[in-house]
Amino acid sequence: MTADRLRLEDGFAGRADAVYEMLLRAHRGLSDEDSAALDTRLVLILANHIGDEGLLAAAIRTARESLGDVSGTQ
C-alpha cells in the first residue's frame, strides 16, 4: 500500500473540530500516564480496524514527518 491511499483531506465532513473536542473530553481528569495509555489503546484499536499494514505504515510515516525534527537529529 502507498501513502496515496491515505486520506489526508477532511474525513469528518467539516466536523473535525467536534471530533477534536471529543478526544479532548476523553482525556479530561486523567493523569499523564492514563492519558498516554488511552492514546495507545485508541491507536491500537483503530490500527486493528484499519487492518492494512501498508496503510498503517503510511499513516505512521505521515504522522512522524509532521513532527519535523523533534529530536535534534535525523
Question: Summarize this, please?
Answer:
With 74 residues, this protein is mainly α.
Key attributes of the depicted protein:
3 helices; 74 residues; mainly alpha; globular
Number of strands: 0
User: What count of helical segments does DSSP give?
Assistant: 3
Average pLDDT metric: 90
Tell me what portion of residues adopts beta-strand conformation.
under 5%
Radius of gyration: 14 Å
Order of helices and strands: HHH
Distance between the termini: 25 Å
> Structural class given helices, strands, pairing?
mainly alpha
Task: Pick out the low-confidence regions.
Answer: none
* Main sheet: strands, sense, barrel: none
Shape: globular
Helix content: 55-70%
